[in-house]
Design a protein that fits this description.
heterodimer; A: 226 residues; mainly alpha; MetI-like fold; 11 helices; B: 225 residues
Chain lengths: 226, 225
């Protein structure tokens, strides 16, 4: 009879190199699912938020209801949001994505609208005076000027989505959240800590990536600061 | 729509309101958790933010702590705390996690509010011979009140949300109705619990909205809020 192995897994330590090497596949799958959940939901939210914000900017009447609905959506706790979507989507990945879309949407609409509203009236008039039509004004003047505010919203939405995706573990599609959930039930310290740290790493990397994109897209803000 | 009527029937059943797993008990737990943790967080965050804001120091910390708070998943922190020795303490991990996530918005908003006070007003107060303490309490803190309150509001909503997730890690509160529903594979119970949580969160938000509207003009947020 052999003695049980005396490694960090058997001792259930928080930090465990063996965990990383033996569970590499599980970790990769969880990270990939996490990235998929986050990226898909933020992109879908962006595709919906942009027209909504432009609409709310154009017709002042629409702004009130749009902002009110987004505030209500944002107030609903994530666990309740996923649960409310259960009858619609069942236990599926779509449910988690739909819930994350609703949160990201809120943050994006608010920020893009704030960015559009902050475009100086003088600038808009100057563009109109140069013969710009409404579409050209929107695409070449208003949206670029709203970009820094919109990107700030996108960064907040992405970081929040990375963090909230873990709650998707309740329906079995939470990316790294699944590992945290199962690690909790089996009292597996290394798994919980590793998955948590990876979540934060993904959030930070995504934030830095978007910051880089923002710098590339808005070279004029850098010139102004220098 | 069938699920909604089922959820309504679940809520209408008086048996679901009584007992240790009943709605009343879970609602009380949720309310107590939220209020107690909000008080603890205010006691921790506000003095620090007021003093830092008054002195104009530690701005980077006060502002960035909110970004850090957003990047760390609440669920992960709840589970991590549960697995530490603190986990043996019943609601201990929940309370600590709730406070950890309520402090950043309080700190950031109060600090930004203090720094946003018109410098000429502060200089006028100093010119009138006010001491630092008088300036803090009679000039800066009252003028920063709208932003401090919006920090408290954000923290309260955050607390309600985090207390719900705490149910996943074995904590009490309305979230337990949802997790129990998932364990029983009872969609009506899950939806009913979610409706209760959503209504609770919206009520908390509504209370702060009402307080803000009833407040005297000087203590209200101005346009730029």
């Amino acid at each position: 009879m052999t003695a049980p192995p005396d490694d960090c897994l058997a001792r259930n330590e928080w930090i465990c190199g063996d965990y990383l090497s033996t569970r590499r596949e599980i970790l990769t799958d969880a990270v990939l699912q996490h990235l998929e959940l986050t990226a898909l939901s933020v992109l879908i939210a962006l595709a919906i938020a942009l027209p909504l914000a432009v609409l709310a900017r154009r017709w002042g009447l629409a702004a009130g209801p749009v902002l009110a609905v987004t505030t209500v959506l944002y107030t609903i706790p994530s666990l309740a949001m996923f649960s409310l979507l259960l009858p619609v989507y069942g236990l599926s990945e779509t449910l988690v994505i739909a819930g994350l879309v609703l949160y990201s949407l809120t943050l994006l609409v608010r920020n893009i609208l704030a960015g559009l509203r902050a475009v100086p009236e003088d600038t808009r008039q100057a563009a109109r005076g140069m013969g710009y039509g409404p579409i050209r004004l929107l695409l070449t003047v208003e949206l670029p000027l709203a970009l820094p505010a919109a990107m700030a919203g996108l960064r907040i939405a992405t970081v929040s989505a990375v963090s909230l995706a873990t709650v998707g573990a309740i329906v079995g599609f939470g990316g790294l959240g699944n590992l945290i959930y199962s690690g909790m039930n089996t009292y597996f310290k290394a798994q919980v800590l590793t998955a948590s740290v990876l979540c934060v790493v993904i959030a930070v990397l995504a934030d830095l990536l978007l910051l880089g994109v923002q710098r590339l897209l808005t070279p004029w803000t850098r010139a102004a600061r220098a | 729509m069938n699920t909604l009527t089922d959820a309504w029937d679940w809520l209408a059943d008086s048996a679901h309101w009584a007992g240790d797993d009943g709605i009343w008990h879970r609602l009380t737990q949720h309310l107590v958790l939220t209020v107690v943790c909000l008080l603890i967080s205010c006691l921790i965050a506000l003095p620090v933010a007021l003093v830092l804001g008054h002195l104009g120091k530690g701005g980077a910390l006060a502002v960035n702590i909110s970004n850090v708070g957003r990047a760390v998943p609440t669920f992960a922190v709840l589970v991590l705390l549960l697995l530490t020795p603190l986990g043996k303490w019943g609601e201990g991990p929940t309370v600590v996690a709730l406070v950890l996530f309520a402090v950043p918005p309080l700190l950031t908003n109060a600090y930004v509010g203090m720094r946003g006070v018109d410098r000429s007003v502060v200089q006028a107060a100093r010119g009138m011979g006010m001491t630092g303490r008088q300036m803090l309490w009679r000039v800066e803190a009252p003028l920063a009140l709208p932003l401090i309150m919006s920090g408290v509001r954000i923290a309260a909503v955050q607390l309600v949300a985090t207390a719900t997730i705490a149910a996943l890690a074995g904590g009490g509160g309305l979230g337990r109705i949802i997790t129990a529903g998932f364990n029983l594979a009872s969609t009506p119970q899950v939806v009913a619990g979610a409706v209760l949580v959503a209504v609770f969160a919206l009520l908390v938000e509504g209370v702060f909205e009402a307080v803000e509207r009833l407040a005297p003009g000087w203590a209200r947020k101005t346009g730029k809020g």
